[in-house]
Structures are given as C-alpha cells and as structure tokens.
Design a protein that fits this description.
This protein has about 130 residues and is mainly beta. It contains one helix and 13 strands, in the order E-E-E-E-E-E-E-E-E-H-E-E-E-E.
Amino acid sequence: VQLQASGGGLVQTGDSLTLSCAASGFTLDYYAVGWSRQAPGKEREGVSCISSYDDSIDYTDSVKGRFTTSRDNANNTVYLQMNSLKPEDTAVYYCAADYWVSCTAVVGSWDPLTQNYDMDYWGKGTLVTVSS
C-alpha cells in the first residue's frame, strides 16, 4: 500500500505545473484526497481536498482560481494542476488520503500538536520552487 506524490520542480513565476498523487494497493476513488504544503519555516497549510462522497472540492483562498484538483480513476491518481504560480507557492507539497470521508472531516482532522492532518495514507513530499 503506497501513496506517491510527484511532479514537483523549479519553475518561474506565472508558469504551470501538475502534481500527481498515485495510489497503489488500494482504490483511491474511495478516499478523500488532500493536498497540503509546507514552506521553509512555516506551518503546513492545506491546499485542496477532493471528497470521497461526491468529488466536491475545496481550495484554500490563496489558490482559488489558480489550482485545480481532479481524479483519474483509471490511473488511480489525483492531480493538482497549478497555474499562474507565484513565489509564495514555493513549498514541499504532500498528498494524503483518508477513507470515505468528507473534506470537512479532513479539515477537522488537523492536529495542532503534530501540526498535521490525521489521514490514513501519506505520500512523500514533492518540492515545488517558483522563482521570481
């Protein structure tokens, strides 16, 4: 059972990048999938979440209109399409999956002690660097 995030890299301001979160050993469609990021010296921040119930999607305000999350069930993958990237988007991006929950539950799973969301599976982070 594994969740793998990939697709990070070095881009310039205004460029686009697509991150992938691929699952193996379980069916990702049954899971809510959240993307979060952590910039150097900052707390982890939730970026987006796609629900397992109805594929409704929530975005944090700073990425609304620029980032898009989608599922590809044929490839057991969730994508994070990032457009109009800004230097403040620079961070390590993580994907995580939680079985059959809403995004409200995902947000509510935030643990201030661990500074993390309580999710079933986590992928290793992928670094996104946006140069100015």
